[in-house]
Design brief:
The protein has 1008 residues and is mostly helical. It has 47 helices and ten strands. A hairpin with a 2-residue loop joins strand 6 (272-274) and strand 7 (277-279). Helix 34 (723-736) packs antiparallel against helix 35 (755-771). The radius of gyration is 35 Å and the shape is flat. Bound molecules: adenosine-5'-diphosphate (ADP) and magnesium ion (MG). Magnesium ion binds at residues 44-45, 157, 187.
Length: 1008
């Protein structure tokens, strides 16, 4: 009989074609992810191997990794399996180029890669979630660089057993490879899919995002099976007719079942060879076993005792095992072990894999391992796990802790009280190692086993039970399993109380408070912080500072900014009194005050705290803290209208984010940058940053940031006249910020409103209604936003953004009392806080009141002029131009046509440069009415300010080509085409393909 893998691939033409297409797409730079799924033995591995072969022939790099049922707990096991062999062949210098210096983080993910010497991590002060994002991001970037040279196929097999971290990584990578030459090919047995919840979620999420194709593999057909039998026995098709019909019916077209049944029939001599011909095809002689399980069992039962013994142990080891491991666990002499292995290889139960110097043994098919393992029965399996555990431990010797993952699993599965102490030891070590890789889920599993084992067995004396308990609690907290965490903290608190350690109680209360806070139970959080503070009196000043800081932040989120401030101020006082020299902690306290005073004023005080936050961060040597200080200062200087300072702090935060290789931090500073560019009138740049950041925030799931990004970007669209696009963004912001839930601000139990999102969401919609001529609606929405902002102490927010819009809307609606009220408030607050923008707006608003309400344009003129000039000096040119336009109106009205026209012209030039649609049109109309001919709208003839590529695309749109067709013609993805298109729309101020086509024709772009 021919060996299975030597027979040609049968009946998979359509599947190969489909996967080859995906491969070719990926090769052209639109990365793809495909899962091939189906029952065990249906041919997933075989098909994947055919695709891998094809890729290799086309010059791809191919790596493949495999998951094993015992490995579900080992973080990044599948990816390590796939990539380690490749990484190991790379020169360290080359690797360091590809990882852009991120080699230490790689070593964290793939500990077997390095000797362990380069593990030292710089202290960045980032939180675990940020560090994890960084790890995933850097890995993705690495793949991008690697595949830029040569396209890369990563084959990941048996994902039903994949560890949570690998699946998380897969999910992350699959979303980022759209323009990379990368093909991720996964396989899994769908009968087992639902036992792996992470796999199910990963698949659902990626499918929803359109980032994954799931391809189900069908059984072979009757004639395929006939061909398979023919190929294996060298018999012509048809010669075995009845037999194959029977076989097909029994195996339902599963090629593995076909092969194993045939092997079994041969071994039992039902099929035999005489004179180079196979006989026994007659149906009546054929005794088919009851199930495939029986077929496999029968094959194992026919093995020699040593081979059976060894294969049982191999099934317990569960992964691809090195020779030394099998030798050690079997307890056989070398000679006997080799003989047994030879037998297993020749029976095609095991196969050799790996390199010459590191030969490993694996089952030829995972079903064999599963059947053998389950056939052991529980008692024997436990016993053998114990044997394997102890043999491996002695094999690894001094290095055993480095293999904690593997040892933990076997010791735990041994369920033996003699081995309980070691179960705790290795589970604890494996849990800690997992935490180092931010593999929280795996860590929690290990630690939970350690804790259960300790709870069950009170005789274990020397284990660090308290540490395990608190580490597990912290891990559950990180996973967002707050109730489970709180339960564990309660145990920890009771233990601390029993020992009479008040300092420890204070720490636990702090953690419990955080768990409540993160699950939205702010009132409970405050209660825990207070209990912690009560217990902390005797404890260290540092704990007191931490608790007060946490309490302050909870109060801020509850919309009690004033109380929050005094709490954090008090924290600083106790820090000073207690001689606390924890620079990081001090930096955090000052940062909190920076951000609080930035919203309530006085702005100068906020600035002081910002500088101190920065100084302490530098002293602590934590770049992350330094980054937040700069970010906060950028925000603050933006509010206080100090453009050069904003630019400086943004540049600093970009530099730091870059040094930390952080994917998330640049998004936060980009949000400030969009606002800043919008204000200073660099709208093209603002839009470009806005769009880019929105896309990145979506793909990195930054929901906190998105509402604001939508509002800022939407405002520019609105002012540019793309009202529909603006509305779309404002609605998205409203939805994400939970606009419907307005009113729960003071609800005791409800999660409080996210003020930094919900207030901007109000701003967006109010601005929209004002621009569309519904001032009454604009007032309504704007005032609702004001109420939220003021109610929670975010006064600067009101002053900076909401009051100008509400005030203007009230004026337009001729609701003068209201307008006067808002205007007066604007002046009072602005003076109190030293808010320059507020003062400018107050002047403008008073000017308009004098004119519209009092009918006194003369009095309006100096006020409007002052407003415009102040806005210009900030600079805030877009608003300045709008005020100038009003100033011109007043001048014209009082009979100063020369000056009026001059002001109109000034306003016009700024608005034209900005591309401020309606405002510009209005200004031009006014100019015409006043007998001034507006300058021509400047569009560079021919090019129209478009790049060469944009002109190419615009032409194709005019010839009615779809994005896909255009992408095909230009060798870029449809998505890239659509990005170009939105830039083109923006540059030309067109809103549809039809309009663009008109533009192309009218401007003669088609025939150049
Ligand atoms: N289309 C095919 N033509 C020939 N042999 C096949 C085909 N598909 C699978 N086989 C054989 O069947 C066995 C099981 O296939 P495999 O790919 O390992 O299944 P799976 O990965 O789905 O569990 C292997 O020995 C394989 O070579
Ligand atoms: Mg397989």
């Amino acid at each position: 009989m021919t060996k299975a893998e030597e027979t040609p691939l049968i009946g998979r033409g359509a599947d190969v074609a489909l996967l080859s297409r995906a491969l070719d797409d990926a090769g052209k730079g639109s990365g793809r992810t495909v899962f091939v799924v189906g029952e065990g033995g249906i041919g997933k591995t075989r098909l994947a191997a055919a695709i891998a072969e094809r890729a290799r022939k086309k010059g791809w790099t191919v790596v493949s990794g495999r998951a094993y049922p015992v490995e579900t707990g080992v973080p990044y096991a599948v990816f390590s399996d796939a990539l380690l062999p490749l990484l190991r062949t790379m020169e360290p210098s080359h690797l360091s180029v590809l990882t852009r210096g991120g080699a230490p983080e790689f070593a964290q993910m793939f500990p077997n890669l390095s000797s362990g010497s380069e593990k030292s991590r710089q202290s960045t002060g980032a939180d675990p979630a940020e560090l994890k994002a960084r790890l995933l991001w850097n890995f993705t970037q690495f793949l991008g660089r690697l595949s830029a040279k040569q396209p890369l196929l990563i084959l990941l097999e048996n994902l039903q057993w994949a560890d949570a971290s690998s699946l998380e990584l897969l999910h992350f990578v699959a979303r980022q490879i759209e323009s990379q030459r990368l093909f991720l090919l996964g396989t899994y047995n769908d009968a087992d899919r639902d036992s792996n919840a992470v796999l199910r979620n990963t698949e659902q999420s990626l499918t929803r995002l359109g980032a994954l194709t799931v391809h189900k593999l069908a059984p072979l057909s009757h004639s395929d099976v006939e061909e398979l039998v023919g190929q294996m026995f060298g018999a012509p098709k048809g010669a075995t007719g009845h037999f194959t019909s029977l076989l097909y019916g029994w195996t339902r077209g599963n090629p593995f079942f076909v092969e194993e049944t045939l092997k079994s029939l041969i071994e039992s001599h039902a099929l035999s060879r005489a004179d180079s011909r196979w006989t026994g095809w007659e149906i009546d002689k054929l005794q088919l076993p009851a199930s495939i399980r029986d077929v496999l069992k029968a094959r194992v039962e026919r093995l020699s005792p040593n081979a059976r013994n060894l294969v049982n142990l191999a099934a317990v080891v569960g992964t691809r095992a090195p020779y030394e491991t099998l030798l050690k666990v079997s307890g056989l002499s070398e000679k006997d072990a080799i003989a047994a292995l030879d037998e297993l290889l020749s029976q095609r139960i095991l196969e050799e894999t790996g390199t010459v110097d590191a030969i490993r043994y694996d089952f030829t098919h995972p079903l064999l391992q599963q059947v053998i393992y389950s056939d052991l029965g529980q008692a024997r399996a436990r016993l053998l796990h114990g044997t394997v555990a102890e043999s491996l431990e002695s094999l690894y010797g001094d290095d055993a802790v480095a293999h904690a993952d593997e040892l933990a699993l076997h010791f735990a599965r041994a369920h033996s009280s003699q081995l309980a102490r070691k179960t705790v030891l290795y589970c604890h070590a494996a849990g800690r190692a997992a935490l180092e890789k931010y593999a929280n889920r795996e860590a929690a599993n290990y630690l939970a086993i350690a804790l259960e084992t300790l709870d069950r067995d009170s005789s274990i004396q020397d284990a660090p039970g308290d540490e395990i308990l608190t580490t597990l609690a912290r891990t559950r907290q990180r996973l967002g399993e707050y109730n489970a965490a709180i339960e564990l903290w309660e145990r920890a608190r009771a233990a601390a109380a029993k020992r009479g350690e008040r300092g420890a109680i204070a720490d636990v209360e702090h953690r419990m408070g955080l768990a409540c806070y993160w699950s939205g139970r702010h009132a409970d959080a405050l209660a825990h912080y207070e209990a912690g503070l009560a217990a902390a009196e005797a404890a260290s000043a540092e704990t007191v500072v931490r608790l007060r800081l946490a309490k302050g932040i909870a109060l801020q989120d509850l919309g009690k900014l004033q109380e929050a401030q005094s709490e954090v101020e008090a924290a600083l006082v106790s820090a000073a009194a207690g001689g606390v020299e924890n620079e990081a902690l001090l930096s955090r306290a000052h940062r909190a005050l920076l951000l609080m005073y930035a919203w309530t004023g006085p702005l100068a005080l906020a600035g002081d705290h910002g500088r101190q936050a920065l100084a302490h961060a530098q002293a602590a040597g934590q770049r992350m803290l330094e980054w937040t200080a700069h970010w906060g200062l950028a925000l603050l200087t933006g509010v206080s209208g100090d453009a050069p300072a904003v630019a400086r702090h943004l540049a600093e935060s970009d530099r730091l984010a870059d040094a930390m290789q952080s994917p998330l931090l640049p998004l936060w500073s980009a949000e400030v940058a969009v606002q800043y560019r919008m204000v200073i009138g660099e709208w093209d740049t603002a839009l470009a940053i806005g769009e880019r950041t929105i896309a990145a925030a979506q793909s990195l799931n930054q929901r906190m940031l998105l509402p604001r990004l939508y509002v800022w970007t939407g405002l520019i669209y609105l002012w540019r006249g793309s009202t529909q696009k603006a509305k779309e963004y404002f609605d998205l912001a409203w939805k994400l910020a939970g606009g419907e839930k307005t009113g729960s601000l003071n609800g005791a139990d409800a999660r409080p409103l996210d003020i930094p999102s919900i207030v901007p969401a109000h701003l967006g919609l109010a601005s929209y209604h004002l621009a569309l001529g519904n001032p009454v609606e604009a007032v309504r929405i704007g005032e609702a936003g004001l109420e939220i902002a003021d109610g929670s102490g975010y006064i600067v927010w009101s002053l900076q953004w909401l009051l100008p819009v509400v005030g203007e809307a009230a004026l337009v609606a001729r609701d003068f009392d209201r307008a006067a009220r808002h205007c007066a408030r604007m002046r009072v607050d602005a003076e109190r806080l030293g808010h320059r923008m507020g003062l400018a707006f107050a002047d403008a608003c008073d000017g308009l009141l004098a004119w519209f309400r009092d009918g006194d344009p003369q009095r309006a003129i100096p006020l409007l002029r002052s407003g415009a000039e102040q806005l210009e000096s900030l600079p805030f040119p877009p608003q300045a131009a709008r005020v100038r336009r009003r100033l011109a109106g007043a001048l014209l009205e009082v009979g100063q046509p020369e000056e009026g026209r001059r002001e109109l012209k000034k306003a016009h030039d700024v608005l034209a440069k900005l591309g401020a649609a309606d405002e510009l049109t209005g200004t031009r109309e006014e100019m015409r009415e006043r007998g001034v001919r507006p300058p021509p709208k400047t569009v560079t003839p021919g090019a129209a300010g478009l790049t060469g590529r944009e002109i190419e695309i615009a032409r194709m749109v005019a010839t009615r080509k779809s994005n896909k067709e255009i992408g095909g013609a230009l060798q870029i993805s449809a998505r890239t085409v659509s990005t170009h298109l939105s830039n083109i729309f923006m540059k030309l101020s067109v809103t549809s393909r039809g309009e663009l086509a008109d533009f192309v024709r009218q401007n003669g772009l088609l025939d150049t």
